[in-house]
Amino acid sequence: MIRRAGRRAGALPNATFIEGDVSRLDLPDASFDLVVDFGIIHHVPNWKDALAEVHRTLRNHGEFLFEDLPLETWERGIGIPFRRIADHPYDRMFRKQEFVNELESLGFELETQESSPFSFYHFWGRAEKIA
């Protein structure tokens, strides 16, 4: 994926692509103005550590844009049969409110939205690092 992203980054000459553990990033504090999670953190067993790294690596007033699938996704609608075939750490997965509470405890102000297209629940939002 890293090679593919690099090949497709022609319009982003200053972009750097690295591979690492989202819960232990080898990056300096306050490295970024923006961090984006597009359906990744629900795959991370130690998701609280991943959110702490987002906070650590964001500059003050930096933004965290997220879209993710909490445990509720896999407990209703079409998520129930998908749970049988999707390989996720369900026993350590967050609920939406746990995710929100963790971000607030880290020092983020946030707003969220949620939706269930085709009975597939997910949520998204924007969090600003304020502390």
* Largest sheet strand order: 1-2-4-3
Q: What value does the average pLDDT take?
A: 93
Helical residues, percent: 25-40%
> Strand-and-helix sequence, N→C?
HEHEHHEE
Through-space gap between termini: 33 Å
What general outline do the C-alpha atoms trace? globular
Percent of residues in beta strands: 25-35%
The number of helices is 4
Radius of gyration: 16 Å
Oligomer: single chain
Q: Low-confidence parts, pLDDT < 50 over ≥5 residues?
A: none
What is the total tally of β strands? 4
Largest sheet report: 4 strands, mixed
How does the helix and strand content classify structurally?
alpha+beta
Quick recap of the structure?
27% of the residues lie in helices and 26% in strands. It has 131 residues and is of the alpha+beta class.
Structural notes for this entry:
With 131 residues, this protein is of the alpha+beta class. It has a domain at 54-115. It has 4 helices and 4 strands. The protein has a 4-stranded mixed beta sheet. It is globular, with a radius of gyration of 16 Å.
